[in-house]
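Two proteins were folded this term; both appear here.
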Amino acid sequence: DEIAVTIAGTRSLPGDIWSFSTNDGARWQTTEYSTAVPRNGGKATIKRAALGSYFVKFGGGRAVRAMRVQ
């Protein structure tokens, strides 16, 4: 399963990880270092991974692990 979302807000957290919200109100957080930076109004693709985890891809960057916060 894969969904495409529009990023509504972003916040940088310690350890080069990101917290971001989507246009539908969901909040997500990357769980590993990412060179791709989410941008307000940008596109992201979220894909379900094994054992309840997720991968998120910002624009054309590489996918990084993420978790849903809210």
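Next, the second protein.
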Amino acid sequence: PLATAGASAGWQRLAYGSAPEEGIELALPPRAQACPLLVFIHGGYWQELAAADSLFAAPACIERGIAYAAV
């Protein structure tokens, strides 16, 4: 899959619903036009954690030119 950077590189929060917890945390590498995208889907207890708690791999991905999304 490819991530296309329509906005500047860096951290973005994309809402998919009206509730505060309904969002995707997206990290884009610098100068991203089209790059690989790694999507981390939290598979457990959403009442305790949020997408932002799943950003542990984002820095390593960005350093390698890979976009990272935590859902």
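Confidence is low (pLDDT under 50) at residues 1-8. The longest strand covers residues 34-40. These notes refer to the second protein only.
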